């Protein structure tokens, strides 16, 4: 009798089969009948393990996110957090161009609150946090994360939708540099880089502060957010 766990269990075979069909022929090819035949299982097994086709597609998206995150987190941070953001952006766009059907599923067809998508945002937020700690963030961290996500995902989906021979080879680089210019400052040459980078840097370091009460931290966090939001939004 087959077990459901393990590398060769039916769940893993079903997800692998669905992923192959997705990458070969797109999401429309991932039917219950086609997946059950490719995985060597009966259709009721798919319904029992995943509920329905959307549940199966969610599992495939989660698998894609896990593989992507394993690649991103395997890279050690460098000395320049802005350069790390550039490299992460290029890795993200490269994923989309190498696996367009999977990318569309991961970023255009999953609903909000997906655990895998949340994990991907957390990795991006860590990149942004390191930029803030270095005193080089000119906008609030949440806004920076949102801008990188919106422009990065939109750029990648635009490239995927454009025939390969018609793609602008500089589109991703231009979009990347525009976002970086909007959210970061140059490495400060003087001890005082200005109020916004200083406030953002202190805001990023608050989790390490243990000399203030929770109420005091809350007030300080609000003040710092107001500084970065008021002066960083221009």
UniProtKB/TrEMBL annotation:
InterPro entries xref list: Homeodomain-like_sf, HTH-type_TetR-like_transc_reg, HTH_TetR
Keyword vocabulary terms for this entry: DNA-binding
DNA-binding residues (ranges): 31-50
Domain HTH tetR-type residue range list: 8-68
Top-level taxon: Bacteria
Protein name, UniProt field: TetR/AcrR family transcriptional regulator
């Amino acid at each position: 009798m087959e077990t459901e766990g393990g590398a060769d269990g039916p769940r893993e075979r079903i997800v692998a089969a669905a992923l192959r069909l997705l990458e070969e022929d797109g999401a429309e090819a991932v039917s219950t009948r086609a997946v059950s035949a490719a995985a060597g299982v009966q259709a009721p097994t798919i319904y029992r393990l995943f509920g329905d086709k959307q549940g199966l597609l969610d599992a495939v998206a989660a698998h894609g996110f896990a593989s992507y995150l394993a690649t991103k987190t395997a890279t050690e941070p460098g000395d320049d957090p802005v350069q790390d953001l550039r490299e992460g952006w290029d890795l993200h766009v490269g994923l989309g161009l190498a696996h367009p059907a999977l990318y569309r599923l991961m970023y255009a067809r999953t609903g909000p609150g997906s655990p895998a998508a949340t994990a991907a945002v957390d990795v991006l937020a860590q990149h942004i946090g390191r930029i803030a700690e270095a005193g080089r963030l000119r906008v609030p961290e949440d806004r920076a994360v949102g801008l990188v996500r919106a422009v990065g995902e939109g750029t990648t989906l635009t490239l995927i939708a454009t025939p390969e021979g018609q793609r602008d080879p500089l589109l991703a680089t231009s979009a990347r540099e525009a976002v970086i210019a909007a959210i970061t400052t140059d490495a400060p040459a003087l001890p005082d880089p200005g109020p916004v980078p200083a406030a953002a840097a202190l805001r990023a370091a608050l989790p390490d502060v243990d000399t203030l009460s929770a109420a005091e931290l809350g007030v300080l966090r609000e003040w710092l957010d107001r500084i970065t939001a008021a002066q960083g939004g221009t």
